[in-house]
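Please, structure for the following, as tokens.
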Amino acid sequence: MRLGLCSVLILLIAGCASTPTTPSTNQGETTSPSAAETTSIPEAKRSTPSAPTTTGTVEIDVSDVNGRSLPSRLELQSPIDFRKTAFEIEPGLQAIQPGVGDYYAYVYVYDEGVPVMVHAQELTVKEGDTSYVLVNLLEGASGKLTVHDYDLDNDLAIDKVELIVGTDPEDPRSIPGHRPIIFDQRVFSNEDKWYKGELHAVSTYGGGEETVAELVARAEKAGLDFLAITDLNTMEAYYDPGFKSDSVVLIPALAWGTKEQGIGLIYGPATEPSMPTTREAAQAECIRIQSQGGVFAIGHPCFSAAPWRWGLGYVNAVQVWNGPWRAAPPLHLSDLSEAEKVREGGKLKRSIAAAAAVSDKTQAAAAAAKRKNVSVSANDQAALFWDYELGRGSVSSPIAGGMIDKRSKPMGAPVTWVKAPNKSLEGILHGLRTGRTFVSSEIGGVEIDFRADALVDNKMDVGVGGAVPLRIEVAFHVTVFNAQGAKVQLLRDGYPVLTQVVDSNRFSFASPQQTEYQSSYRVRVIRQPDNPNKGYGPVEVLALSAPIYSDDIASELLLTGPVDIDKTWIRLDSEFTKEDPRVSGN
């Protein structure tokens, strides 16, 4: 274990117990643990306490042993209600005026733009008095190692602080100042197969019409295998007595974010997430959730009232489908700021802007042809946003959700299917993390089986979420169910390379492909809308799959050392090598 020593100059002795967390906020702002998601566009309704009538002074200075002052972040957490207040601290001695009282103080410095906890102490703020947080940091000062190198478990709290506070420096589920989430360990079925569920339901804690127990009962009645209740910026649903089921896997979850910056969806966090403040803190939350084995997804990125503006990297999934496919109006470039519309080489740089531009182009084309506006839907744009992110190197899976905040909204329409090693919380999270998903319009709707035979030897090597090598022939095998009369497409980087008319309820085809550069292949099933004049977009999407990636696997192998490529064999293994009973007829 790597442990550095640092000199910490404080007037109050460091050392606090592991404590729970609740929402942290923008500089100097404090929020309560609960918030609400509105029926159309999520927007937190925070119960914000009035400004303290009495304040004290805290002086803070964070520097390294070389005498260099560092920009930092200070979080003050109440030991009574665990509410947090966050302050961004400029380099040099700074003074802030929080309310009087006792706090746990957590200090972060920025490593590659991400805040990493480097100090913790107890702090008392008194009226008319000054308290101090003075940190002199050894870790990262040499330049040979960064601050993050002293964080063994990648939970963004260095090992020394965890040892002082009493959390486990080898377990990312044990973090100073973060309340743990206790997982349900039950396994409902040991069968390795596809499971279906609803990933975006809203309870009364988030402004929805139904209680937690009512949502769970609906999921059980619908025959779903898993359910996530995603109230905005609160996990009160997880603590509700109605959060229990003997047949449905209940995923601890929340919608996370703001109307201004966009909404993320967090599934299976091992500790309560800190609430949204800055982009840097948001990226840290994304990293921490994944270190714990959870899933960080982008929610409905192209909803015009809450477009995705966080710009985070390394997300696990994108909600490409929210509600009926053609129902939500599109995002326009005019909905975005000038900074978001920056161009590079004449092209819009950010995926959200590129997706928004499509609606403007379709409207312009329709006007030029004197046709009725056939603009795309927000879900069409979400799929495009996802394609653009995949093209930029993202490895992420598609998910769907109904934003079920009313009893009138059907649950599981759209529905997310996850290939999991078993029916359990860990199993479903594993399938989501590894990209083994497809989404469909409803329970009992179109299903997709998508695999690749990398050597064209009639052996399935990988399925969705997997990768095949470049510069060899690969046969992509597609089977769709319950799609008679629709069209099935094999897409490469979002563009169709093959379209087939489905003439039976179990329809299969194979398509040989050879790629010379990194690409993503996925499957989409579409049909003409019943009423083209109602809704947005020219087609109705019935289902779409996660990608199979083509990647330079040989190049990755060469990085490990000298290899005679002529004498080297690469064996491809995945959970998809076993035949799907739906395809084989077993």
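The chain is about 15% helix and 30% strand. Confidence is low (pLDDT under 50) at residues 1-50, 565-572.
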